[in-house]
Design goal:
The structure is a homodimer of 385-residue chains.
Chain A: H1 3-8, H2 23-30, H3 34-42, H4 49-62, H5 68-75, E1 80-85, H6 99-114, E2 118-123, E3 138-142, H7 149-156, E4 161-164, E5 174-178, H8 180-193, E6 199-204, H9 209-225, E7 230-234, H10 239-251, E8 258-261, H11 266-276, E9 286-290, E10 304-307, H12 310-326, H13 336-339, H14 342-345, E11 354-357, E12 360-362
Parallel strand pairs in A: 1-2, 1-3, 3-4, 4-5, 5-11, 6-7, 6-8, 8-9, 9-10
Antiparallel strand pairs in A: 10-12
Helix pairs in contact in A: 2-3, 2-4, 3-4, 6-12, 8-9, 10-11
Chain A binds a DNA duplex (30 and 30 nucleotides) through helix 3 and helix 5.
DNA sequence: AGCCTTCGGAGATACGTTTCTCCAAGAGTG
DNA sequence: CACTCTTGGAGAAACGTATCTCCGAAGGCT
């Protein structure tokens, strides 16, 4: 039994054996009250520096580590943020499957840590019992489907939710998304300027916002410029289906002379399909795809890609969420959250605040008829340093 | 004020406004005691099914969600597992930077979730205050450096730690690693059989276990077969340095006719370097590199890779950790953890239990002089389905 | 009839903090 | 001297759950 526990007069019968030192032990050892210890360690209250440092030293000596669980219970803050990615197909996660998710998650983790929060990776399926078992201060949801029951449940129970991807019909505290329409229009214009006469699209069958908005933008553009739409769809989560769809697109009688692929692997798939049909890129076929992968910088030829800037998105999403958690209204310091708890905030205030982030088109040889000058270091003979 | 809170007689003065329903509210609404509610919901105690279902129904109706914080405080279990990856260079994480980490993390997340735990991504630097703020049941550490203070601290405070990568000098509950020596020897034999006369190595400057063991295995093999070692080292976290080192290796007067690269990007780097020197792969240069990326299946030519099977590793690590947390001794059901808390378990019992996992060599064209028959679908004319 | 066992459940305590309230002693002030 | 104000700190009440202990009642057995 600890001497401190003895003095504190708490457990007279049960002897706490080798447990970690608690705040009581520190208080007893330093000859002060628990209040003083708490204040000293947390920098609150009014204490002379001498007491503060003495308490800190005693705590250090005893190896005192405050119990996160107790603190969470008392303060209602866990410092934990959920990160949820919608699941496609059998696998529980597409997490880190595509470069976009991986980079976004990394940026989000980093941003959260920078503000003292940690990220918990959670499945989108609410049946996993783990959801109820974790005290979350808020949640980031990537690409929530319409009417997501999980998001509704979270929001209803007062947990702030910020989504990456404009939510369909579920209530969120805030959302961040790319300006997909502008991105697609920009690409179509870019291809037109490069000489494309008939631009095709490789798109997905699912109904998520990204796919929907991008496809609509394409169709709208076609209607405006008077081009017959030329597109193929496939289930985006199935890599094999992508190659087949790429092949299908180039096999059409009205074969396009330029293609934009909405998903990461489309670039290599389209390149392979073009090769099979003996089409030269960019001479016979202009190519652009949406990807965060840098392999497209070294393909033959390098492929123009659209970056959704996942790092920026991840950072923004997390910062928005933490702002909501801490009740900061973008720097005004007004404690909005306390005045209007989340469950009431949208009542009558219209749609939740959304932020549109710009994308970046990384132009490479595949989308330029006149291929840009590439810097190639000349081969050096062996032996030369 | 809730009627239940009124009846319970607890807070007579302060009115709890719109807070979530607690276990007391459920008890009051169901006309039973708190004990009964807890037992009914957790499937403990001895209760008739009628009471159990009635309580469950009331809880459901009230939207009762047990407080994770309170449960954690009471039971000492949070259901949270830390996932730490050592940081190289400036970036806070290499998390998901390499395919190995990404896949390993995904498998670990999945395995944890399957057993009712969630993963928290944490930085390896202990100065981040977030470490002390989270109740962790255990931690997975990827590739801990020798004498890692963080691991020591965790282990000392009784938190089980399982590492991916054989730990140098820090005490862990268990560890999992590949049999790097066997893997390297296997590759060297494979290259020899393919006709290699002088095998080179592209390796790293850092002292982590993987780099060290692999390099030592190479040197040992060289000594055994009487080949002069031919290798170049570079800081593995610097992508640009890899290309330079690859170039250096092929520029040597004693240029190797086969190379094994220890890191993921080495394949493309070596391929590019070979091209610069006019070396044909595999005719003039045999190539193997360690990578989880499937881009090497489609390079020109496809490159033979060594897979460390990160999914298997991630799953094993997590299961080992949870076994330790729950005190399960690999199925015997003996509660070892309770009998011997972690801090005493290594006293005299020698090194912590380690598991060596096999690797997999994925043989492709780059390491075979007689290139294997490749199945290439002949180009189909457009219009044909 | 008396005793033992099982059933169904209530009471109370502990988990380890944070924080609200309050108090004693000294210091300044009229 | 009587008073207020400030300083430094103590006491105790939560936070919401799990669980240990105990108890009455009903039935079974000798």
């Amino acid at each position: 039994m600890t001497a401190a526990a003895n003095q504190s007069g708490r457990r007279p019968t049960t002897s706490r054996r080798l447990e970690r030192a608690g705040i009581r032990d520190v208080a007893a050892a330093a000859g002060v009250s628990i209040t003083t210890v708490s204040d000293a360690l947390n920098g609150k209250g009014r204490l002379p520096d001498e007491t503060r440092s003495r308490v800190r030293e005693v705590a250090e000596r005893l190896g005192y580590r405050p119990s996160a669980a107790a603190r969470t219970l008392r303060t209602g803050r866990s410092g934990l943020i959920g990160l949820t990615v919608t699941t496609y197909g059998e696998e529980p996660f597409t997490f880190t499957e595509f470069a976009y998710f991986a980079e976004m998650a990394r940026a989000a983790t980093s941003a959260a840590l920078g503000r003292g929060y940690a990220l918990v990776v959670l499945p989108a399926s609410s049946r996993h019992d783990v959801w109820g078992n974790i005290a979350l201060d808020g949640t980031v949801v990537i690409d929530p489907p319409d009417q997501d029951p999980l998001v509704s449940e979270l929001y209803r129970s007062g947990v702030p939710v910020v989504s990456d991807g404009k939510p369909g019909n579920c209530p969120v505290t805030a959302w961040v998304d790319n300006d997909h329409e502008a991105a697609v229009l920009g690409i179509l214009d870019h291809l037109s300027e490069a000489g494309a006469r008939r631009i095709g699209l490789l798109t997905g069958t699912s109904t998520d916002t990204y796919t929907r908005l991008s496809t609509e933008a394409y169709l709208g553009w076609c209607a405006k410029v008077g081009q017959e739409p030329v597109y193929e769809t496939y289930p985006a989560h199935d890599p094999a289906a992508g190659a087949v769809a790429a092949d299908r697109l180039l096999a059409r009688p009205d074969r396009p002379d330029a293609v934009y692929g909405l998903f990461d692997p489309n670039g290599t798939d389209l390149l392979a399909a073009a090769r099979r049909y003996g089409l030269r890129v960019p001479e016979d076929l202009l190519l652009v795809c949406c990807s965060e992968s840098d392999v497209y910088a070294t393909t033959e030829p390098p492929i123009t890609t659209l970056s959704l800037k996942p790092r920026k998105i991840g950072t923004t999403v997390v910062n928005l969420l933490i702002d909501a958690i801490e009740g900061v209204d973008s720097g005004t310091g007004v404690d909005i959250a306390r005045l209007f708890p989340p469950r009431f905030r949208t009542a009558g205030t219209g749609p939740p605040p959304g932020t549109l982030m710009p994308t970046e088109l990384i132009v490479r040889a595949s989308s330029q008829r006149r291929s840009p000058r590439t810097t190639v270091s000349p081969p050096r003979p062996p032996g030369e340093v």
